[in-house]
Each structure stands twice: as structure tokens, then as C-alpha cells.
Amino acid sequence: MQKLLAVVFILTILVIYKPATAEIKLNGFGSVAIGTVIEGDEFLADYPKTGIYNDDLSLDPDTTLGLQLSAYFTDKFSLIAQVAVHGASDYDPEIDWLYLNYYLTPGLSVQAGRKRLPLYYYSDYFDVGYAYYWIRPPPDVYTWQITNYNGASLLYETALGQWDTSLNVYFGSEESEDNDLLNLLRNGASVDETWKNMIGIVGMMSNNWLELRLTHMQGLIDRAISGVSVLNDVEQQFLGMSLNLTFDSLLILSEFNNYRQPDNDVEYNAYLLSFGYQIGELTPHITQSGFKQDISALGNDDEQHRTISVGLRWDVADNIAAKIQYDKVIDEGMTVPVMGDSKSISFAVDFVF
Amino acid sequence: MNIHILEQFFRPCNRFVLFISIVLMIVIINPCYAESKVVLIAAKGSGIKSISNRDIRRVFLGLKSSDSELVNKPVINLYDRELYEEFLKNVMHMTEGAYKRKIVKRIFRNGTEEIKEIEMLNELNSHLTSNIGDISFVDNDAVEKMHDIEVVKVLW
């Protein structure tokens, strides 16, 4: 319903604005990935879309194709729309972005419509494999069941001395019926999830060698399992920090997140720490990531898993990268073992155009 | 006899003369390097008076200029691939791969317009003169081959 409202809102604005003179740009991205579990049963490579590898070779869990249409009506006013198909979602088209952007000043812009929920460092371009060196961002950290929101945001970008800085404030909500990830974690029971009254802030600052990102979001959750309400107006809070360093050829990437539902005594922490080294067109990398949610006093489930990933990115051409990656998952959850221990290998070709 | 001459040549005093000669040669040769400057250019009449290297970096990352509202869009000059790599190293402070990934992130994160790349000098000339306020970088020698173009800043 909210997606429909967003579409109607955007179309109304366009009809009023008469975008006959718009400059239209089309960009695209894609990943063709194939992989298999070589030890263990299954590997949950993509939590939100439940992309799962098993002991057969599979193309579906990480394969993605996306198109982004940008219509620049004036220097200040534009429309951004992005549609993607994912193997993990049976190649059904999904609207990830559909928003209007207006520059109030050269540094300050306002957006309204549908956007990616910027909880994590790679949230905005989670599906654009070309933009990072892994085949997919570490799954332990990217365990989000809601990936988009409908609402509005303000983005302020400016330079402070030697630092590029940005501040993004957003407000919105999202409804997800039959949520893929929650259905999987609830053994196939149909789960409807709504995140509402979300208010978030994302601050970034970077210079030539350091990038720091801090984020906070709070809002309310409604959840129904098989039509029965189990959460209603439950408060949730998310806090995240990323610190990325570049020392010539050495890349150090990190991310730390804390999620809480204070009233339900639910809390989890997730992290990643990664090292990459650029040698010409090649970037070997190694990553440790983890997720930990303890059993609470109220008897909520525990969930604990960590992953060690080793991989290589090869920049084949200006807009094409080939990747190979080995992932070893240690699943230590007692009441919620997500997929169990596994070792898997995957190959991908990422491209942008 | 020859050994004697060599000994004389390498006496401390002579070594000093040799050092001064080398320094003078470097100073004399230096203007030749100075001529092959790399400059930031725009169409004549753009009105862009000054722009910091920091702001140039911002603009080539797809951000709006904070130094001047007259600066429009950046254009990557691929006419000279070596010059492009030097520009990335000296101004953007990153490798070609890192730069490409940064731009891709901004395109798919903010809907930022892709930065135009031009491989022919005459095409670059034509683009800049028909898009007042757009900026690019060229070797100083190339400016003489272009028309209605002005140097905004010497980059290095």
C-alpha cells in the first residue's frame, strides 16, 4: 500500500511538473554469481532475500540485475528510480528507489519517496557488487528484514577543512507482508512486519585515508505471525559505526552495529573487520564477521554466528570485476541455529553500465 | 700522469664545483619541466575565478562545488591516459580503481549523475564551449590547440 502511495505521489508530481525537458540517464548494475556449499548443508548468503546455497551449484542466491533511471529536470530537481531483479527473489522486479530530489542549496537537498533504509554502511548499494570487493557484504552484519522505507529525507553535504562531510536525516515507514527472512527464521510461518515512525540520522566524514560513518535509527515495530499480532508499537533502536582506512594499497574496513528492543529485552551486536590489499588489478581480502544475540531474561531466542571469508577481486576492465570467495560459517545459536556450520565457495562477475 | 689528474679532479674543492654544476644544470633544465604544466580549464567567459584543489576533488567526486556557484560539471579527459592517472594521484589522491568505485557508489547511492568521459581533445573543446561552467584538466600544451578555452588554475 505504501509503495503504491509512493508511486502515486511521484507520478502526481511529474504530471504537475511536465518533465518533457528532462535529461534522462540510465545506469545499470549486475552480478552473475555461482556457488556451492562444500561442507555442511546450507549457507545463508543473503539474509533479506534469503539467498541460500546448498550442496548443488546454484546461480540464484547472489545473482542480481538492476536498472537505475535518473531524470534531471533542472540542475536542482531530479527523479531517481531503481528496479532490480534477484535470483533469490525468483527474479520478480522490486522497486528499491523511487524518489524526487531537490537541491535547496548546493549542499542541502531534500528527498521524498521510496529509498533504501540506510542502516548499514553498504545499505545504499548492497546489491551493487561492483562497488565492494566481496561477492556480497558479510551476511552476519546484514541481517535486516526491512531494507527500504517510504518517507522523506534531508541530506547536507559540505567540506570542512580537509574533510568531506555529510549528514542525512530521514523519516518514514515500511510494511512487509510475508517477510522472506522472518518466514525463514519462523520455520515457514507467515510473518507480516511493519516498521513505522522511523527517525534516523547518518553522519559521514572522510578525508584521503579515513572514512567514519555513524548512524542511529529508532522507530516502532508491528509484527503478526500467521495473522496473530505478536508485537504492537514495540520500540526499536539501531546504532552503527563504520571506520574505513586506506593506506596506499592497504584497505581496512570495519563496521559495528547494536540493535535493541528495550521493552522486550532484545539486543544483538554485529561486526565485521576486513583487510584488503590492492596489487594492480587484484585485491585479495580476508574478513571476520559475527552476530550475537543472547537468550534474554524474557526467554527470547539466541542467535550467534560468525564467518571467516577469504577472497580475491580482479578488476578485469573499467566496469567489470571478477571475484572468487571462500566462506566458513560457524553457527553457535542454541535455540536458533540459522543454517548450521558450513564451508562454501562462490564465483561472481560484477558489472556496471 | 692520468692517475694524478683523476686525483686532482676528485679533490674536495673539485667535488664542490661538480656539485654546483649539477645544481645549476637542474635549475637550467627545470623551466622545460615547468612548461609541461597540468591545468584546470573551462570555457572562456565561465567566470570561474578561483577554486581550491579540495573543491576540485569534491566536484570530480560528483559533489557540488562549495567554492563557486559558477562551477558546473566535471569532465574526465581521457585524451592522455597517463595524465588522467596523474590527475587521480595528485588531485584525487586515489587509484583509478578506487576512483571508479567511489563514483559508482555515488551514482547508486545518491543518484548522482555519471561523470562524463571524453577521449578526443576537439570533442572536449567542443563540450566545454557548449557547456559553460564545466571543467576539465589538460596538459598546458594542449590549451594552445584548443579555442575559446581559459586556464582556471595550474594544478601542478
Low-pLDDT runs of chain A = none
Which word captures the global form of chain A? globular
Largest sheet of chain A: 16 strands, antiparallel, barrel
**What percent of the residues of chain B sit in helical stretches (DSSP H or I)?**
40-55%
SSE arrangement of chain A, N to C = HEEEEEEEEEHEEEEEEEEE
Low-confidence stretches of chain B: 30-34
Strand order of the largest sheet of chain A: 1-4-5-6-7-8-9-10-11-12-13-14-15-16-17-18
Number of strands of chain B: 5
Distance between the termini of chain B: 50 Å
**H and E string of chain B:** HHEHEHHEHEHE
Number of helices of chain B: 7
Q: Helix/strand/pairing class of chain B, anyone?
A: alpha+beta
Using only CA atoms, what is the Rg of chain B?
22 Å
Strand order of the largest sheet of chain B: 4-1-5
Q: How many independent structural domains of chain B?
A: 2
Strand content of chain B: 5-15%
How confident is the prediction overall: mean pLDDT of chain B?
84
Gyration radius of chain A, in Å: 20 Å
CATH class of chain A, anyone?
Mainly Beta
CATH topology of the largest domain in chain B: D-Maltodextrin-Binding Protein, domain 2
Quick take:
The complex is a heterodimer of chains A (353) and B (156). Chain A has 353 residues and is mostly beta strands. Chain A is 6% helix and 61% strand.
Structure, explained:
The complex is a heterodimer of chains A (353) and B (156). Chain A is built from two helices and 18 strands. With 353 residues, chain A is mainly beta. Chain A has a single domain, classed as Porin (Beta Barrel). In chain A, strand 14 (266-277) and strand 15 (282-293) form a beta hairpin. The longest helix of chain A is centred in the N-terminal third of the chain and has 16 residues, at 2-17. The relative contact order of chain A is 0.15. The chains are: A mainly beta (353), B alpha+beta (156). Chains A and B meet through strand 1, strand 4, strand 5, strand 6 and strand 8 of A and helix 3 and helix 5 of B.
